[in-house]
Specification:
The chain is an alpha+beta fold. The chain contains 4 helices and 5 strands; from the N terminus they run βααβββαβα. The protein has a single domain, classed as Aminopeptidase, CATH 3.40.630. It is globular.
C-alpha cells in the first residue's frame, strides 16, 4: 500500500465510497438493501465495524466489514469472536498489502472489545477467497455443508 493511502472507520452511511465498494463486492444485492444493512451497522457500533481505504481523499479503493459474535462460531474456542463479514479491494490496488491493513484495523477494533480470535468463512468452491484468507494469516479450521428442510 502506498504511504498516501488512509483507512477510515465508517461512522455514517454516507461514508464516501462505502456503498460503491459494497456494490462492487455484492453486485446482486439491491441498493436499498445495502443501505438498510449499512444503517444497521452504523446504529450498533459496539457490534459492527467497517472501514474504507482511500488512495486519496476522493478515491475509495477498498473496504472491510466485521461483526462481534457471541454465539458459537465454527472453528473457534472463545467468545466473543470477531467475524469477517466482507472484504474488497479494487482490482488495480490488489496485492499491495491493503487487505492486510484493513484486516489489521478490524483486529485492533476487536481486541479493544475483548476478542482473542478472528474468524471468517468462504464458500467451498471459492478458492480465491481461501487463498486470500490464508495470505491474511487465517488458518482453515473445518469444512461444513449446510442443510435445510422446509416445515410447510
Amino acid at each position: 500500500m502506498q504511504p498516501s493511502n488512509t483507512i477510515e472507520a465508517c461512522s455514517t452511511v454516507e461514508q464516501p465510497g462505502w456503498l460503491n465498494l459494497r456494490q462492487a463486492l455484492w453486485p446482486d444485492c439491491p441498493c436499498d438493501e445495502h443501505l438498510t444493512e449499512m444503517a444497521g451497522f452504523i446504529a450498533d457500533p459496539g457490534r459492527y465495524a467497517q472501514f474504507v481505504a482511500y488512495a486519496s481523499a476522493s478515491l475509495p479503493i477498498g473496504f472491510v466489514e466485521a461483526s462481534l459474535r457471541i454465539d458459537y462460531v465454527n472453528g473457534t474456542d472463545t467468545s466473543p469472536v470477531v467475524f469477517l463479514e466482507g472484504i474488497y479491494v479494487a482490482p488495480g490496488f490488489r496485492r499491495q498489502g491493503l487487505a492486510a491493513q484493513l484486516v489489521a484495523a478490524v483486529a485492533t477494533w476487536a481486541r479493544s472489545r475483548g476478542c482473542s480470535e478472528f474468524a471468517s468463512d468462504a464458500p467451498l468452491d471459492n478458492e480465491l477467497s481461501h487463498a486470500v484468507h490464508l495470505a491474511l494469516g487465517f488458518t482453515e479450521t473445518e469444512r461444513v455443508v449446510y442443510f435445510r428442510k422446509p416445515l410447510g
